[in-house]
Amino acid sequence: MLGTRLRYKSRPPHFSFCPAESSTANIVMQKKLLHSQIYRLRRLIYNIVTPVRNKIWRRQCKYRDFTIISQDCIGGIIYHRLKMKFLSPTINLLFLGANFCKLAEHPAFYFSHNAEAVDPAHSPYPECPTIRIVDIYAKCPHNPSAEDAAKCWNRRRTRANLNHAVIIANTWDLLGDAALVGQLESVPLPKIIFAVNSKQYHGDDFLYLGKKFRQTNIDQPPRPLLKAGTFDNRVRLFEKEFRFYKLLARKLRK
């Protein structure tokens, strides 16, 4: 309206008429929209494909009563994919270094004992819930509390079938220690040990990850394993590197 005074003598500082800034903002918004659409498409495909893939894997795995003594959460992932009851107390736990070697060497002894929650003030891993079984410690990154993790161990330890068991471990959670790797190799149970460096580790028990897995330190997980990915129940990158149902069948036949 003529004669109306402008409220601002100059443009508000938060408002810009610069074409370049406006164009950049539009590009950013378009990229975000595109990423959102791609995510929704991937999620849709995943929700369709995953149940079918898991069903195929369940049919191809002939064994249904085996115990996985797992160093990390891969054992739980495999049981979940195969839609099997958790026949191991190591589900969702992480055993580092000598703690796992002791467990692998004497599973019957440790499976016969209850776990107890460890006070963070006295835990070797104060940043994470921790349980103790006799003299070994386990981190519990997937449990809401150490008390909950102890209850899970105590409930599942009686289900273990050590006459039909396989050990699954990796070199980085053994802290890249050659002595600990050798100690685990000497355990008489069937084993699958993930490794990145095929020049450093040799033998039938080792499973070497592909070239896309890069490891900066021997006691740290390979790089792609550090990326959480998009979906909670996704097929992990390391799962694409081996057909676990065939490998388990081969190991369990021994």
Multimerization status? single chain
Tell me the fraction of residues in β-strands, as a range: 5-15%
Radius of gyration from CA coordinates: 25 Å
- Uncertain segments: 226-234
**Total E-strand runs:** 7
> H/E order of the elements?
HEHHHEEEHEHEEHH
Q: How would you characterize the largest beta sheet?
A: 4 strands, parallel
Q: Count the helices. How many?
A: 8
Summing up helix and strand content along with how strands pair, one would put the structural category as alpha/beta
Helix content: 25-40%
Shape: globular
Instruction: Give the number of domains.
Output: 2
The CA-CA distance between the termini, in Å, is 91 Å
Query: What value does the average pLDDT take?
Result: 81
| Biggest β-sheet: strands ordered side by side in the sheet | 1-5-6-7
Tell me about this structure.
With 254 residues, this protein is α/β, with parallel strands linked by helices. It has 2 domains: 19-60; 63-253, no CATH class. The protein is 38% helix and 11% strand. It has helices at residues 19-60, 74-81, 98-105, 107-111, 146-156, 178-185, 223-226, 244-253, and strands at 67-70, 116-117, 130-133, 136-139, 165-170, 191-195, 206-208. The strands form 2 sheets. Strands 1-5-6-7 form a 4-stranded parallel sheet. It is globular.
Furnish the topology, listing elements before pairings.
Layout: H1 19-60, E1 67-70, H2 74-81, H3 98-105, H4 107-111, E2 116-117, E3 130-133, E4 136-139, H5 146-156, E5 165-170, H6 178-185, E6 191-195, E7 206-208, H7 223-226, H8 244-253
Parallel strand pairs: 1-5, 5-6, 6-7
Antiparallel strand pairs: 2-3, 3-4
Helix pairs in contact: 3-6
